[in-house]
Amino acid sequence: MISTENGVGVAVWSFAYGGSNDDVATSMAPTSNNGMVICGYTEGLTSSRDAFVTKVNSAGVLQWSRIILTDSIEQFSDITESINGDIYATGFIDQDTMGYNVLVARLTNSGSFVWANHYGNVGEDVGTALIEDQLGRIVVVGSTMNDSVTIGSAGDQDISMLMLNSGGAVLRRKNIGTINKEYASTIVQESANRYTVGGNVDIT
Hints:
- With about 200 residues, the chain is mainly beta.
- Helix content is about 0%, strand content about 60%.
- It has no helices and 16 strands.
């Protein structure tokens, strides 16, 4: 359910979106026309979990909803609208023998998929947050575990950063970690090539 309030806390509108399945919103972002884009996952359409993106207008009226429907598990965890009005979402997809891979999708403002790609190696690679930077690049942060570029001891979890161009091609990858478990949950841009990443580290 999504609700919006005025300046004194009175609800302007409130809507529930979805069908008879379990539909879970994980993140939302404002759009340039005062609406919102929402991402998350739905269960029950197939035998697994499927990622979705939904757009509503400023009055909360559903504009469109799109689902990545495969025989694998997919989930979106963060979403943003780009400067040109396209929409980017990130999360993960279960690649069977490869484990989880970072999932990133680009959609047009009208809801057509431009591309949906997955990134990662053997192990658990998950995207949790993304931004479009000042140069139009998409920067995704999350975590990586059990792959060949893990930092620290074998099998630990590290922060991952993935930079893509608007076509989905990888421009740069970077992992940050220690012998402890770390993951990133948010990212902001400070300057043209400087970012601040927030998350968690398990030091027990």
